[in-house]
């Protein structure tokens, strides 16, 4: 089986609020996104299909066919629109990123020729995206940033072994990174809010449990978690999972970018 993805962009406005709620309730749950006059995004949509390679053509599906189906849907229904006011589905359903992904999946499933819809991912911004595959579960990923110092050094290895394995990262004074943390939660959408999780609560939990603990700290010297544990990014991803999972029952995955080239993920 071959998996192939195609990306496209569109611009749309929306307002995230429940009409039957008070202004105070909407502002408490949705924050600035509840502004009645709306706000907008340049969305990026990735559509991934799967299928077997055609022996004659050497391809799974003609990209032009994917573009025709996806672009027609996006251009006619979403691009340049105010979703709450101009789209029948989003007049009745809050146009969260999760709800938009669900709508796109239901609209595209079974309509891409010669292949099967495998996954849809929609970026609202570089720091927030939602995705859906088969089944009712929808994932939401929020990206965070923190800066730390660490020294890669294992007490179970000799000084020579540490220098050989970790090189300059074994510098006794440490070195630093701008880490980017992807926290992915998964579940069914709340039928009223259209959300997998309250983003404000997610932000508060990650800030309190992870960012305040690690941001602008020396992992080896300033944190209990790494007093006796080598602060590799592999270990850091596991530690962050263990810190967050008691507070996020629907936690699905931790993704950790140490650099643009080095990425680690942990699914518990």
From TrEMBL:
Cofactor(s) of this protein: Zn(2+)
EC nos: 4.1.2.50
Pfam families recorded: PTPS
Reaction catalysed by this enzyme: 7,8-dihydroneopterin 3'-triphosphate + H2O = 6-carboxy-5,6,7,8-tetrahydropterin + triphosphate + acetaldehyde + 2 H(+)
Record pathway: Purine metabolism; 7-cyano-7-deazaguanine biosynthesis
SUPFAM superfamilies named in the record: Tetrahydrobiopterin biosynthesis enzymes-like
Keyword Lyase recorded: yes
InterPro entries tied to this protein: 6-PTP_synth/QueD, 6-PTP_synth/QueD_sf, PTPS_Cys_AS
Keyword annotations: Lyase, Metal-binding, Zinc
Enzyme class: lyase
Family indicated by similarity: Belongs to the PTPS family. QueD subfamily.
Protein name (Swiss-Prot/TrEMBL): 6-carboxy-5,6,7,8-tetrahydropterin synthase
Organism encoding this protein: Laceyella putida
């Amino acid at each position: 089986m071959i998996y192939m993805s195609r990306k496209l962009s569109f611009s749309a406005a929306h307002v995230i609020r429940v009409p039957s709620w008070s202004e105070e309730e909407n502002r408490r749950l949705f924050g600035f996104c509840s502004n009645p006059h709306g706000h907008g995004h340049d969305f990026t949509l990735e559509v991934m299909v799967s299928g077997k390679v055609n022996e004659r053509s050497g391809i799974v599906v003609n990209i032009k066919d994917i573009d025709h189906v996806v672009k027609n849907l996006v251009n006619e229904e979403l691009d340049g629109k105010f979703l709450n006011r101009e789209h029948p589905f989003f007049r009745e359903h809050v146009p969260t990123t999760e709800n938009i992904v669900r709508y796109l999946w239901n609209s595209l499933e079974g309509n891409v020729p010669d292949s099967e819809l495998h996954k849809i991912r929609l970026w609202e911004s570089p720091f927030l995206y939602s995705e859906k595959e088969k089944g009712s579960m929808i994932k939401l990923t929020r990206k965070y940033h923190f800066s730390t110092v660490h020294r890669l050094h294992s007490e179970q290895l000799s000084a020579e072994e540490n220098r050989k394995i970790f090189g300059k990262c074994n510098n006794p004074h440490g070195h630093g990174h701008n880490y980017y943390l992807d926290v992915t939660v998964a579940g069914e959408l709340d039928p009223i809010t259209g959300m997998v999780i309250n983003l404000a609560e997610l932000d508060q939990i990650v800030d309190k449990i992870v960012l305040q603990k690690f941001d602008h700290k020396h992992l080896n010297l300033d944190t209990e978690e790494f007093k006796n544990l080598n602060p590799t990014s592999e270990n850091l991803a596991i530690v962050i999972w263990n810190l967050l999972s008691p507070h996020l029952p629907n936690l699905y995955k931790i993704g950790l970018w140490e650099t643009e080239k080095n990425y680690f993920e942990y699914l518990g």
